[in-house]
Write a structure and sequence with these properties.
heterodimer, B: seven-stranded mixed β-sheet
């Protein structure tokens, strides 16, 4: 799907087919709660919240059927600011709570808001299992590469050697690449976008909502207090075109300031950036988010590095498979068809019984 | 050959063998036969945590004890009248419990030099006279089974494995048990393997015939059916009863059941049982960990379902934070803690009552929850329904403290009529947006004045959109609040809500037939049977003693303080180091007498009877 492509008129986004429609046309204002937003001035979360609230009316769902579940951290305050149902839960556990909710209520549109510490550190286990389980939830990971709410410790996405309060001599552990991690966890939908690029962010949200099953979106998000300008190479006008690789499904991959660069597979399956003019046109790749094998998407994710030499954004992978909640409902339906609706008296009196008196 | 038939009023049999000898199966089948026959019964499976510990060793011994009688009984019994020992390890591990004069049936084939030395026997106890005080029946169980099956086209290994059926057949003859149930069971188990099925049936029959025709057994016993309350009965384990109770509660409340659970001994059977019941609309999720299990359950509750999680002690530790969240957001949640010996991994297959204080207090902050404990395997059913009633009515987490003994033990259960079960849908309603005047903001923490429960407003309800979370909420509006007085008020309100449940539960009943007892024995949970059996002994020998048993541990029944103060001495036996006693002393300033043994096993009635006599003597 290209960045600006809208679903067909009348097209019901795939994750929402069982969610009741709104009676009336909605606007971003309908999704603003009365709570004062309390992020630091200049925080990237504001831009994401605004883009999200402006996007929500597009879903055309009854507002009361939207649920946002978050964990702990700056980003996880978001549910308070959206006028829908929401739960600000505990650190790292939002995917687990959202899984129980989505698996038992297919009529809800369930979104998880999380951060790099919440999702990748304390909640890493829930994240990877939610992805492989493929419950119909949309996970937005605000990645600012730092712990903000606890005032500036390094996070699982901080670059190696990061000097913070808890690592005055530099951090020692290799960071996660969230997109690689999600792909390794069998995610069917994996995307990356940037807080400051509202148009791109919105297009990715739309594609996520059009995916039935778990969708994972990493959002580069600037923390002006503890990790300012961490994403400057991919946000600064002028510089960003040197680094960003914008993925558009079905389109040739072109990047660099004048679109002169392309991608091709190297001998061992990794991708390498090459000048288009000097390359065999057949060796140059067009983006295919629907490729069944995740190896290509994984190779794309490996182009990313701490210094953003190449930073792909867009939808890396978008492959459908039956969702967990759908399969769970089908098993229940199947059991009822085969065995009949459960009869409690019969259940209690099952097995060997005997009469007294 | 016609044999003498001797009438008995009760018998305790213990099947013991290697983990792979099929003793649990033999015990279970004998139990079913006995239940069908109409005896009252109580069972105690006792097995190692290892699936196949090294063969022939003491740690590998697995046993199954069954107590059955022509009258109502309360425990699996203290000392076996018959021990079936399939190998030297089984003999050695169990002999201390066997009273002199009891029958021992030993499989001589396994009493080889190597097996004897494995467990430290210098000589063969079957031959050296050391068992002269017992009625020893030394039978080559393996070889007679193999011989009986020589015409079947099965491997020698399969023939040897059928020796448990031979033993079962022998015991079934000895106690004149009905056999049809076991035949049906074998047919369903081995239906697809006709040779194995026929061999197992033949092994069972050979065991029966062996008893009838050999001179090893001169007496056949008869235990008449017990006189129980009229009704239809089945035998049931605690875990099955708990699972059925949850399904019944789901049906009676109209709330779809969602179980989020991670496999853990001895709770996994609840997950297994509920996973079969999809036709009841039950959703089960084997979660990636304990935290996810309870998290998913809470998510389901938020969505208007009956969220349940099941676990044991180590899992409880991991779930603590989510239970705290459930306390804070005030949603119904059922947590089944099937206690086992701790701390840490402890002894996974052995029972204990040491999670009480953790259930009550094992979370950060003031975090009150309701806590209930079933008293017998069948009582797990009623306790589950009562737990759900409290959870949905008061919008609170409820912890059910069962344990390994109740979970795997079984007893006859008079099957209740569905119409007689509590109508839980009358206990709660979902909040609805209708009638909310425009401009009137929904108040998600405005409480019902009677129950102090907040509205259960589920997603999908127009007009009631709201946010909840673990941060302190303003009384009424539920918005984030760091106001000091508001926090103090909310802490007290959450506690008052739980305390208020005391007015909505049955008062503690006292059993004191003479009416003049000066000593009360107060227990909770799975010790009900042992305490009851001990009290019978004391009363039979002329002692006067009262008994009361707590199902509700939080809150306590409203009359508990009064009850405690009506006796000169209160004895509190617990399979921990005095956790209930600590609560009673703190709450009621009563210096109760504790009796504690933490052996991973239920109390023996005889030991408790002595303790009670001692307390009576010292009043």
């Amino acid at each position: 799907m290209s960045e600006l492509e809208f679903p067909e008129p009348g097209h019901r986004l795939a994750s929402l087919t069982l969610v009741p429609k709104a009676d009336e046309k909605q606007s971003a204002k309908d999704f603003k709660s009365d709570q004062e937003v309390r992020w630091c001035p200049g925080c990237g979360d504001y831009a994401i919240l605004a883009a999200f609230q402006s996007f929500l009316p597009e879903l055309e769902i009854a507002r009361e059927n939207l649920v946002i579940v978050s964990g702990i951290g700056c980003s996880s305050r978001l549910p308070y600011y959206v006028n829908s149902y929401g739960m600000h839960s505990i650190h790292g556990r939002a995917p687990a709570i959202a899984t129980g909710l989505a698996a038992s209520r297919p009529d809800l549109s369930v979104w998880v808001i999380t951060g790099d510490g919440d999702a990748l550190s304390i909640g890493g286990n829930h994240l990877i299992h939610a992805l492989r389980r493929n419950v119909n939830i949309k996970i937005l990971l605000f990645n600012n590469r730092i712990y903000g709410l606890t005032k500036g410790q390094y996070s699982p996405t901080s670059e190696l050697g990061k000097v913070t309060k808890s690592t005055p001599f530099g951090s020692l552990d290799t960071p996660f690449n969230p997109v690689s991690l999600a792909l390794g966890a069998e995610a069917g939908f994996v995307a990356r976008t940037i807080d400051s690029d509202r148009k791109h962010l919105t297009s990715v949200l739309r594609a996520a909502a059009d995916h039935k099953g778990t969708a994972f979106i990493e959002i580069y998000q600037n923390c002006p207090i503890f990790n300012d300008d961490a994403f400057l190479p991919v946000t600064e006008p002028g510089a960003r075109d040197q680094h960003l690789i914008r993925l558009e499904d079905g389109e040739p991959i072109r990047f660099g300031s004048d679109g002169s660069m392309g991608l091709r597979f190297s001998k061992y399956g990794s991708l390498e950036a090459v000048p288009v003019a000097e390359s065999d046109p057949d060796s140059l790749l067009s983006h295919d988010a629907k490729a069944a094998d995740p190896s290509y998407a994984f190779a794309l994710s490996r182009l990313d590095s701490s210094d953003f030499a190449h930073a792909p954004i867009g939808v890396f992978r978008n492959v459908e498979r039956p969702s967990y909640d759908e399969l769970m409902s089908a098993q229940i339906e199947g059991a009822r068809q085969k065995q009949g609706d459960g009869d409690l008296a019969e259940l209690l009196a099952g097995g060997d019984t005997w009469q007294v008196g | 050959m016609t044999k003498q038939v001797q009438q008995l009023d009760r018998v305790i049999i213990r099947f013991a063998g290697d983990s792979g000898d099929g003793m649990q199966l033999a015990g279970d089948r004998f139990t079913q036969e006995t239940a069908t026959f109409g005896n009252d019964l109580s069972t105690l499976p006792n097995f190692p945590a290892e699936i196949r510990a090294p063969a022939g060793t003491l740690p590998g011994v697995s046993s199954f004890q069954l107590h059955f009688a022509d009258h109502d009984i309360l425990t699996p019994g203290d000392a076996p009248d018959v021990l079936v020992a399939m190998n030297p390890a089984a003999l050695k591990a169990n002999l201390d419990d066997v009273p002199r004069g009891a029958d021992i049936i030993a499989n001589t084939d396994e009493f080889t030099k190597r097996n004897l030395s494995k467990v430290g026997y210098a000589g063969n106890p079957l031959e050296d006279g050391s068992l002269d005080a017992y009625q020893l029946h030394a039978i080559p169980l393996t070889s007679v089974t193999v011989k009986a099956l020589e015409n079947f086209e099965i491997t020698r290994k399969d023939a040897e494995r059928a020796k448990n059926m031979f033993a079962l057949g022998l015991l079934s003859w000895l106690y004149n048990r009905p056999v049809e149930g076991t035949m049906r069971f074998l047919e369903s188990k081995f239906g697809t393997k006709p040779q194995i099925l026929a061999a197992n049936k033949a092994a069972f029959q050979a065991g029966w015939n062996y008893g009838e025709t050999t001179e090893a057994f001169s007496v056949q016993y008869e235990v008449k059916p017990a006189t129980l309350q009229p009704g239809t009965y089945r035998n049931i384990t605690g875990n099955s009863a708990l699972a059925y109770g949850l399904v019944a509660a789901s049906r009676r409340s109209g709330l779809p059941l969602f179980l989020g659970s991670y496999p853990i001994t001895p709770a996994s059977d609840i997950l297994h049982e509920l996973s079969k019941l999809k036709r009841f609309g039950v959703r089960t999720m084997q979660a990636e960990d304990e935290i996810s299990g309870v998290g998913a359950a809470l998510g389901a509750s938020f969505g208007g379902g009956l969220g349940v999680t099941s676990t044991s002690g180590p899992g409880m530790c991991l779930k603590a934070e989510t239970i705290g969240l459930a306390v804070s957001v005030e949603l119904p949640l059922i947590i089944c803690d099937i206690q086992r010996a701790g701390p840490s991994t402890g002894m996974p297959t052995k029972t204990e009552q040491a999670d009480l204080l953790m259930a009550l207090f094992g979370r950060n902050g003031e975090s009150p929850v309701a806590v209930l404990a079933p008293s017998t395997p069948a009582d797990c059913f009623d306790t589950a329904i009562e737990a759900v009633r409290i959870a949905v009515k008061y919008r609170t987490p409820v912890i059910i403290l069962s344990d390994g003994y109740l979970a795997n033990g079984s007893e006859p259960w008079r099957i209740p009529s569905v119409d007689g079960l509590a109508r839980l849908r009358d206990e709660f309603s979902f909040a609805c947006g209708q009638g909310t005047a425009d401009g009137d903001e929904f108040q998600p923490f405005q409480r019902n004045p009677q129950t102090l429960a907040r509205p259960w407003a589920i997603p999908g309800t127009p007009g009631l959109e709201h946010r909840i979370g673990g941060i302190e909420k303003a009384d009424g509006s539920g918005t984030i609040s760091y106001d000091p007085d508001n926090h103090d008020r909310m802490v007290r309100l959450r506690q008052a809500k739980i305390d208020g449940i005391a007015a909505d539960i049955a008062p503690l009943e006292i059993d004191d037939p003479d009416g003049d007892a000066r000593v009360l024995v107060l227990g909770w949970g799975s010790t009900y049977g042992s305490i009851g059996a001990a009290i019978r002994r004391v009363r039979l020998s002329g002692g006067s003693v009262a008994q009361a048993h707590l199902r509700h541990l939080s809150p306590f029944p409203a009359n508990l303080g009064e009850v405690l103060h009506s006796y000169d001495k209160v004895l509190v036996p617990e399979i921990n180091l005095g956790q209930l006693a600590l609560l009673l002393r703190g709450r009621y300033l009563t210096d109760v007498v504790s009796y504690n043994r933490v052996r991973g096993l239920p109390f023996r009635a005889s030991e408790l009877a002595e303790v009670i006599q001692d307390v009576i003597a010292n009043v």
